[in-house]
Amino acid sequence: MFDVITEENFFLYAAKHYDNSSCTGLNDFYEDLNHIKYIKRLFNRYENKEELKDRLITNHLILLYNVFGVEPATKILFFKLDERYWPLLKTFLVGLNVLPDIITGINNKDINTVEIEIDQIV
Predict the structure, then answer these.
(1) Which domain holds residue 58?
(2) Buried (b) or exposed (e) across 55-82, using 16+ Cβ within 10 A?
(3) Helix, strand or coil for residue 8?
(4) Does residue 4 sit within a domain?
(5) Considering the domain boundaries, does residue 109 fall inside one?
């Protein structure tokens, strides 16, 4: 049912894979999803030649992986982040040892992460 992630089923997909024992309600779920926005913002700052806050990005990523699990968090990140951020995202995910060679089921497509370049500057 949720092998493919789309705009229509994104929240259902995220909710299905959400596992936070300290969650007290829907607000906690949305707060955890907001970490994707924070990562986007930090990537955008880096892209605009400002500083790279690598530890803060890593903390946001670890939080997402802790509450969604490895495969769902990876799929969610590649779904929600623009393709221009994928090299930077790949760099962090390789460092965390959570990046598969292929991510399946994003808008009925598969992403071959081997073909994505690593950001050499980071």
Answers:
(1) 10-115
(2) eebeebbeebbebbeeebbbbbbbbbbe
(3) coil
(4) no
(5) yes
Amino acid (one-letter) located at 115:
E
Cα 14 from chain centroid (whole Å): 11
What count of other Cβ atoms lies within 10 Å of the Cβ of residue 9?
13
Q: Decide if 2 is inside a domain.
A: no
Q: pLDDT by residue (tens digit) across 62-120?
A: 999 999 999 999 999 999 999 999 999 999 999 999 999 999 999 889 999 999 999 88
Residue 3: inside a domain: no
Using DSSP's 3-state secondary structure scheme, residue 12 falls into helix
| Global pTM exceeds 0.90 | yes
Determine which helix (DSSP H) or strand (DSSP E) holds 114, and give its type and residue range.
Answer: none
Residue 109 burial by Cβ neighbours in a 10 Å radius (0-12, 13-18, 19+): exposed
* Single-letter amino acid, residue 117: E
Q: Which residue has tokens 């829907």?
A: 26
